[in-house]
Amino acid sequence: MGALDRLVLSDAAWERMAPLIIGRPDQKGSTGRDNRMFVEGVLWIVRTGSPWRDLPEVFGDWNSVFRRFSRWSRKGVWHRIFEAMSDDQDFEYLIVDSTIIRAHQHAAGAKKGGLKIRPSAARAAA
Description:
Layout: H1 11-17, H2 35-48, H3 62-74, H4 77-85, H5 121-125
């Protein structure tokens, strides 16, 4: 089963999203190569939780997709899409709730023994 077997955007959902994106042929500036496949790639990352480097090549070069994702984030495109699609039950997996987020045991990064607080030299001299 390949990545294309798991595309999630229905035609109706895409029709709701399409006017909200940037890089459309009807806009000035550069045009996105395949906006729908790009959005599918981002949704693949969201669904799987995979790192960007693991994005299947069918969605394009992972670094190009990541840079485009970042540009859209800075320009508020994802926020507009989220607002428009928030009432669609097919996209409820995009809602992140802190009760389901788990960190790997090494994610904390702190050394064993806890934080050692020492009085500053300036305070000791005063």
